[in-house]
Write a structure and sequence with these properties.
It is built from 2 helices and 24 strands. By secondary structure, it is of the alpha+beta class. The longest helix has 45 residues.
């Protein structure tokens, strides 16, 4: 072989070695970048929200594109596994009475005479609040849950009293020789509506929360009673016999614009306004015996919720408007029950051989 030919062969061999070295280096760089890309992608998906993950991936893609040009030999490798973003699956909860749903006041003669009791919304923790030789009845919460108003015969005739939520500090609010009963606190805490026969027959009155400025709202020769406030404290729904039988009426808080909501041949009474302002629950014997019904606040859409041969009455809403507590003698004596706002899943809360009545729900 000539010297010239030998020299050309050596140069060609060196060029081949350099090419192989370049290919190895490029392959190594590709492997490193691929591993780094996979690692950063996994870390980014675990630590960043979706938009941030997409941004990080875009930056890495641009970097890889700049490194590998069309003149570089393609490198193929198995991509690193990408871990899925963790997710949380929420299970739907079945509505059921819990302590977080507040407490329920009620009256009971389980200790001989009528007294005021309180329990959790699931029926547990039943505690006696009053201890009088006469009857204490018709309890209702203050909006902040700190006080309880009720009627009592402890002064000789039925009058309205207030006490702390634990039963202490009993104070008399009304003082006359006739009867005052069915007190209910306005949601804005400013007033108390109640029924009284101080002017002859039962009528609706209102007073300040401290008992001052007692004002008559209804003027009829028939009975007006069982008031209940709207959640905005602007209206009062009540029961009236002014048209011959008991029906549900509503009026402004000053007694104006008294409007009839129900019109049946039998009694409609004991109305209760839902805290969300959408519905009024009431009792009616329009179908033969007393059952719980529901209607819109304008009187439309009257719907029966309970259906059994026993007496169901005194409905009152939970603070989330999803449940209704009521009284029934379906198991023999009068007990406190609760059900869904659509009448489903009724259950007994008190289960006592004595009579439990007049539930009132709180949010605390």
């Amino acid at each position: 072989m000539s010297r010239k030919t030998q020299t050309a062969a050596q140069q060609e061999s060196k060029a081949g070695d350099k090419t192989a070295m370049y290919v190895a280096i490029v392959g190594l760089i590709g492997t490193v970048i691929t591993v780094a890309f996979g690692y950063l992608t996994v870390r980014t998906q675990l630590e960043l929200p979706i938009s941030a993950t997409q941004t990080a991936e875009a930056r890495l893609a641009r970097a890889a594109s700049a490194t590998f040009t069309s003149t570089v030999i393609a490198h193929t490798s198995t991509p690193s596994p990408i871990l899925p973003t963790p997710t949380i699956t929420l299970r739907p909860s079945t509505p059921s009475p819990t302590r977080s749903m507040g407490r329920i006041l009620f009256q009971s003669n389980r200790d001989g005479n009528l007294e005021i009791y309180v329990m959790n919304a699931d029926g547990t923790g039943q505690i006696r609040l009053t201890n009088s030789l006469t009857n204490d009845a018709n309890p209702a919460w203050s909006p902040d849950g700190k006080y309880v108003i009720f009627s009592s015969w402890r002064s000789g005739n039925e009058q309205i009293y207030v006490m702390n939520a634990d039963g202490t500090g009993v104070t008399r609010l009304t003082n006359n020789t006739y009867n005052d009963w069915s007190p209910v606190w306005s949601p804005d805490s400013k007033h108390i509506a109640f029924a009284s026969n101080r002017d002859g027959n039962p009528e609706i009155y209102v007073m300040n929360a401290n008992g001052a400025e007692q004002v008559r709202l209804t003027y009829n020769s028939s009975n007006d009673w069982r008031p209940f406030w709207s959640p905005d404290s602007k209206r009062i729904v009540y029961e009236s016999e002014r048209d011959g039988n008991a029906e549900i009426y509503v009026m402004n808080a000053d007694g104006s614009e008294q409007t009839r909501l129900t019109n049946s041949l039998r009694r409609d009474g004991m109305p209760s306004w839902s805290p969300d302002g959408r519905y009024i629950a009431f009792l009616s014997d329009r179908d033969g015996n007393y059952e719980i019904y529901l209607m819109s606040t304008d009187g439309s859409g009257q719907t029966r919720l309970t259906n059994n041969p026993a007496v169901d009455n005194v409905p009152v809403f939970s603070q989330d408007s999803k449940h209704i507590a009521f009284v029934s003698n379906r198991d023999g004596n009068y007990e406190i029950y609760m059900m869904g706002v659509d009448g489903t899943n009724p259950r007994n809360l008190t289960r006592h051989p004595a009579d439990d009545n007049s539930p009132m729900w709180s949010a605390w």
